[in-house]
Design brief:
The structure holds 2 protein chains of 2 kinds. Chain A is of the alpha/beta class. Chain A is built from 12 helices and 10 strands. Chain A is globular. Helices cover 65% and strands 0% of the residues of chain B. Classes of the chains: A alpha/beta, B mainly alpha.
Chain lengths: 291, 207
């Protein structure tokens, strides 16, 4: 008997070489890198796009993609990016922050100094609140320094939602019941609101990463979380954003990008720092006026 | 909580008003690298600043400021910007060559009129680098200029670079030229091998 899913599987049959071509294309256009271990992830999203465009075959779809017909590149990138955000997403970077980055930064600070952390784009607030919660839970020095968390996004609707701090169950999926009890209050139909004290600990502002004059409002950040946004930019915008971010950071400050992003392909301004938990990028500590 | 409360500090400063370009142009020749960096960034997108950016790039030694000047030219992205960048494809400094090619790659429309000439350049290295500029061109046009190159190119490394680009963007129109190239370079085994793979790849695509 033929299993019911065979026709679907046949319809999206994709050869290894096709996958490689697609991955090369994606890498060149976005810097997103996928290897064979992600084959299931790739096949599934690729099959979705082939079906959505009515292409019928990889060859037909790839021609559509290369011509960028109907903004297919953007659709493909969206399909390959997990747009949904949630608390403690990519928490290996949060772990890296408390295991390595902060201790390095503290070498240049005195007790009572401020530590400035920036979440951009912050979307609906899950990331900046996660940073605050993670620090409360995992960093013993948290009471010895003034920690400023600024969270910015270009989308004012997202900022409004972030400031309200109301979330559904999906956003909380990585949090333990104990964490939810501690940092949220239940409101209605399964939704929760973040603790008022935590909500007031994050300053939300509108910002555009590629707008130079706008970005001059932001300076002296020690750690920047700028995840899963640069992949949407073209080469020029990526470079402008990288230069803007450089200016927004203190010398020696760190920047964390999304797992599929790499600063090395965008700009040589930052140094690569490899830690067991994550690869992050650092604005060089010394001035470079060695001209 | 140890966090600074909303409104308790001034982490966000007032936005700077729009500034005229003249001070930035002057600052491009400042002895202070930070001033030059700021000036180059402020002149991004200012088409009239191309000549001063070009002059600044010529003498600039600080890598960060050079990067900012390149980005400024990339943001302007006109023919004058491209003409400013093209000479760096001949630089003896690999970093300068790479920076120039990366910047030019981001300007496919402005670069396109120059690609055929670059692919016919007397300098092997320039021809090799120029194949990368075809990568972002429309497939039919990229195929055309790269096939023109392959028909007369004598250096196998340049051919290999063109073949690699064709593997990604080439159309079926490239197949006869690729086959002829493989025959012409039968004594350079890696090239027929690469061409065979490229032909297989292109053949599997729809025309």
């Amino acid at each position: 008997m033929v299993p019911p899913d065979v026709p679907v599987a046949r319809a999206v049959l994709i050869a290894q070489d096709d996958v490689r071509r697609l991955c090369e294309f994606l890498y060149r256009r976005t810097g997103m890198s996928f290897d064979d271990s992600k084959r299931y992830f790739i096949d599934r999203r690729l099959a979705e796009r082939i079906a959505a465009t009515g292409s019928g075959s990889f060859q037909s779809y790839f021609a559509t993609l290369r011509a960028d017909a109907g903004h297919e590149i953007e659709h493909l990138v969206n399909a390959f990016t997990v747009n949904e955000t949630y608390f403690y997403r990519e928490d290996h970077q949060l772990r890296c922050m408390t295991s390595h980055l902060l201790s390095d930064l503290l070498r240049r600070k005195r007790t009572g100094d401020s530590i400035r952390i920036w979440s951009i784009p912050c979307s609906t607030g899950e990331e900046p609140y996660s940073i605050a919660m993670w620090l409360m839970e995992n960093w013993s020095e948290v009471d010895n320094y003034n920690i400023e968390i600024v969270a910015s996004d270009i989308d004012t609707r997202a900022l409004k939602a972030a400031a309200e701090g109301i979330y559904g169950a999906r956003a909380l999926m990585r949090l333990s019941r104990d964490m939810i009890e501690r940092y949220f209050e239940r409101i209605d139909d399964g939704r929760v609101r973040i603790d008022p004290g935590l909500r007031d600990s994050v300053q939300f502002t509108q910002a555009n990463l590629v707008d130079g004059p706008d970005m001059t409002r932001y300076r002296d950040f020690d750690i920047v979380f700028c995840r899963n946004v640069l992949i949407y930019f073209d080469d020029t915008s990526r470079r402008v954003a990288a230069e803007n971010l450089y200016d927004c950071m203190r010398p020696g400050g760190y920047i964390c990008l999304g797992h599929s992003e790499t600063m090395s392909r965008i700009s040589p301004l930052f140094s690569v720092c490899r830690y067991p938990e994550a690869i992050v990028y650092q604005r060089p500590e010394a001035t470079d006026d060695g001209s | 909580m140890p966090f600074i409360k909303r409104g308790a500090s001034t982490p966000v400063t007032e936005s700077k008003p729009g500034e005229a370009t003249a001070p930035h142009i002057a600052a491009l020749s400042s002895p202070d690298a930070e001033m030059r960096w700021g000036a180059a960034r402020a002149l991004g997108g200012v088409a009239a600043a191309v000549p001063v950016l070009a002059a600044a790039l010529d003498g600039e030694q600080n890598p960060r400021v050079r990067e900012a000047i390149m980005t400024a030219l990339m943001r302007i992205g006109d023919e004058a910007s491209v003409r400013t960048l093209l000479p760096y494809l001949r630089s003896q400094d690999a970093r300068q060559r790479s920076a120039a090619i990366e910047t030019l790659q981001a300007l496919p429309g402005a670069v396109e009129p120059f690609v055929a000439a670059l692919l016919g350049d007397a300098d092997t290295d320039v021809r090799l680098l120029a194949t990368e500029l075809a990568r972002n061109m429309p497939p039919k046009h990229a195929t055309l200029v790269l096939c023109d190159l392959l028909k007369k190119e004598s250096h196998p490394n340049v051919c290999a670079a063109a073949v690699e680009v064709l593997a990604e963007v080439g159309t079926r129109d490239a197949l006869p030229t690729l086959k002829a190239c493989a025959e012409r370079f039968a004594n350079v085994p890696f090239l027929p091998f690469a061409i065979e793979a490229t032909i297989a790849r292109i053949s599997s695509t729809e025309s």
